[in-house]
């Protein structure tokens, strides 16, 4: 329950909705209670009038009494109708305040979580899968909303109603009040119990539903593999088994659900019987009137639904607390990627690595070890190495996805001293795994680059050697990508990703194996364009192909996170070491193909 304290700041922010909601709840309940008293008065009037009417049997006064009765009774009816309308109006206002407040809180909480997700480091995203992140921002927030919305509304209503109704009932007859209330505790305990079973079974259904939809989603995203491996019937059987389990769980819930209302009706019926039985004796003893019994039955029925809702409300609050606990877990995560001095000084592009060592926190794998390198501003450096040698790790460290041991400096200033988003803006990063948004080609190039003219966008695309391809699409730059759009080839995606990085005119460009899917001719065109664009800027070109490295001012060969060779193309060729061997091997492969 302590977890829910996080929401207090929102309840405070929207306190006026809460205060007004409570006031409206009190008023609406008063409009519910007053008709009960009118019913009592009118019933008593009926009895008294009948007594008097028959007492004046045969007298001329009798017709006067009848006329008087006929004019008073519709007046009572009209009052009851008016009260019902007023109660409805105020119930509407209750929802307009408390439920509206819950929607505001839901909105704020979602934004708070989303903002937190964005500032969390890569480590966090490696530890938690996307489904979990999605669930906490959608389903868990939804459950929390049930607490600040309906549960709070029913809770306030219950308290107000119990205070008002019980004090009215006590003022009429404490004895009858005791008997009326006797079955209610049993009712709420029974409902609480049944409700927990319902909740448990609903959760099992929910879990099965999410398994079912995850399976279905995977089937459709991997449909190409499934078809080519002729596995349709295997997946259909798997789906059927999952759906069958879903049906079984749903039927188990139906059983408890069907028990729920009969149980409530029996206990409420018992209360009604007690009112009539005990009330009847009180009438015989002359302590109560028939109107009082009618009044009590109305009170009892007014209390039935709110008392029934106790079980529901309690379990909603429990579920909200569990969900808020999960949300707080993420909100309390600390990001270690923060700036020490928030520097925003102009960057020229010099890069220095001093004894850099990085161990992946979750796996303990050493990504880079004793890595020392100086890259002057305007220089280009190629990082070569076999798979798993630590090349991408280096790229991740430059863009400060992780902080390593040792030190990385930009223009002789520690990377940690720069404002994080400022320094990232100075770097054009093309990751190994290209990610494009389901949007137009133009918007994908413009992504995060601020105001750009169409000429600038076109120039970046030309430099990435993608212009002719885009012209070939019927809608050119407006072509949509993604699920409902066209699918680009691997090489086209890489080139679009390069265009997106260079259009920002970065001071430092990091290409992480970004030319692996293009042929050597295109690779050459792009590299030549890059050497023109990045003339006075720094480029880090990561690759496992010697052809990408040839033009670089400096070449570094990595193996198991350590530098094994470095120098220029000529010096390394003369040395006849790893680079030379790699060059010869790749040359032969190229000749063969
Ligand atoms: N997020 C991660 N968590 C744990 N270990 C990782 C992570 N990313 C990489 N590694 C490990 O770190 C080592 C270096 O990986 P890295 O991605 O830097 O290699 P690479 O040289 O870029 O390889 P490739 O050319 O195949 O992309 C590998 O052993 C890899 O398994």
From TrEMBL:
Gene3D superfamilies, sorted: ABC transporter type 1, transmembrane domain, P-loop containing nucleotide triphosphate hydrolases
Xref: InterPro entries: AAA+_ATPase (IPR003593), ABC1_TM_dom (IPR011527), ABC1_TM_sf (IPR036640), ABC_transporter-like_ATP-bd (IPR003439), ABC_transporter-like_CS (IPR017871), P-loop_NTPase (IPR027417), Type_1_exporter (IPR039421)
Keyword set, alphabetical order: ATP-binding, Membrane, Nucleotide-binding, Transmembrane, Transmembrane helix
Signal sequence coordinates: none
Keyword Glycoprotein: no
Localization per Swiss-Prot or TrEMBL: Cell membrane
Topology class, membrane: Multi-pass membrane protein
GO molecular function, one term: ATP binding
SUPFAM superfamilies: ABC transporter transmembrane region (SSF90123), P-loop containing nucleoside triphosphate hydrolases (SSF52540)
Membrane spanning residue stretches: 16-38, 73-94, 151-170, 176-194, 259-279
Superkingdom in the source lineage: Bacteria
ABC transporter domain residues: 351-585
Domain ABC transmembrane type-1: 19-319
Protein name: ABC transporter ATP-binding protein
Organism of provenance: Ravibacter arvi
Organism classification: Bacteria, Pseudomonadati, Bacteroidota, Cytophagia, Cytophagales
């Amino acid at each position: 329950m302590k977890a829910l304290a996080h929401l207090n700041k929102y309840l405070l922010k929207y306190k006026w909705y809460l205060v007004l909601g409570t006031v409206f709840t009190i008023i609406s309940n008063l409009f519910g209670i007053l008709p009960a008293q009118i019913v009592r008065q009118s019933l008593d009037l009926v009895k008294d009038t009948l007594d008097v009417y028959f007492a004046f049997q045969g007298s001329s006064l009798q017709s006067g009494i009848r006329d008087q009765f006929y004019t008073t009774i519709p007046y009572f009816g009209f009052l009851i109708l008016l009260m019902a309308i007023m109660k409805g109006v105020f119930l509407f206002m209750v929802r307009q305040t408390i439920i509206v407040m819950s929607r505001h809180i839901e909105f704020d909480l979602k934004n708070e979580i989303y903002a937190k997700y964005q500032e969390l480091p890569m480590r966090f995203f490696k530890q938690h899968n996307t489904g979990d992140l999605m669930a906490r921002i959608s389903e868990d927030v939804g459950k929390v909303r049930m607490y600040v919305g309906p549960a709070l509304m029913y809770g306030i209503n219950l308290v107000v109603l119990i205070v008002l109704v019980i004090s009215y009932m006590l003022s009429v007859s404490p004895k009858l009040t005791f008997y009326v209330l006797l079955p209610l505790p049993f009712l709420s305990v029974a409902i609480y119990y049944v409700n927990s079973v319902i909740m448990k079974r609903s959760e099992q259904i929910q879990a099965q539903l999410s398994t079912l939809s995850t399976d279905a989603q995977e089937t459709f995203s991997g449909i190409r593999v499934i078809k080519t491996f002729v596995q349709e019937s295997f997946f259909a059987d798997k789906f059927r088994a999952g759906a069958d389990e879903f049906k079984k769980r749903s039927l188990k819930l139906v059983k408890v659900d069907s028990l729920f209302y009969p149980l409530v009706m029996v206990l409420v019926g018992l209360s009604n019987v007690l009112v009539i039985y005990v009330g009847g004796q009180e009438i015989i003893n002359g302590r109560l009137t028939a109107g009082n019994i009618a009044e009590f039955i109305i009170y009892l029925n007014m209390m039935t639904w709110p008392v029934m809702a106790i079980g529901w409300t309690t379990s909603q609050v429990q579920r909200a607390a569990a969900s808020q606990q999960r949300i707080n877990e993420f909100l309390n995560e600390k990001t270690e990627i923060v700036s020490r001095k928030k520097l925003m000084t102009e960057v020229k592009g010099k890069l220095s690595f001093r004894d850099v060592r990085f161990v992946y926190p979750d796996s303990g794998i050493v990504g880079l070890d004793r890595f020392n390198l100086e890259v002057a501003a305007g220089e280009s450096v190629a990082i070569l190495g076999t798979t798993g040698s630590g090349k991408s790790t280096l790229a991740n460290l430059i863009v400060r996805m992780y902080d390593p041991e040792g030190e990385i400096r930009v223009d002789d200033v520690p990377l940690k001293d720069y404002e994080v988003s400022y320094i990232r803006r100075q770097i054009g990063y093309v990751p190994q795994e290209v990610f494009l948004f389901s949007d137009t080609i133009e918007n994908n190039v413009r992504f995060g680059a601020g105001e750009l003219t169409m000429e600038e966008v076109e120039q970046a695309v030309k430099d990435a050697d993608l212009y002719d391809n885009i012209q070939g699409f019927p809608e050119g730059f407006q072509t949509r990508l993604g699920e409902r759009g066209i699918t680009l080839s691997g090489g086209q995606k890489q080139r679009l990703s390069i265009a997106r990085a260079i259009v920002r005119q970065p001071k430092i460009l990091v290409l992480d194996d970004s030319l692996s899917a293009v042929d050597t001719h295109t690779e050459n065109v792009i590299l030549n364009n890059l050497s023109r664009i990045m003339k006075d800027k720094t480029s880090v070109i990561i690759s496992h192909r010697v052809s990408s490295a040839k033009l670089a001012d400096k070449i570094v060969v990595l193996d198991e996170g350590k530098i094994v060779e470095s120098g220029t193309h000529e010096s390394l060729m003369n040395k006849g070491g790893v680079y030379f061997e790699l060059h010869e091997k790749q040359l032969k492969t190229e000749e063969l193909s």
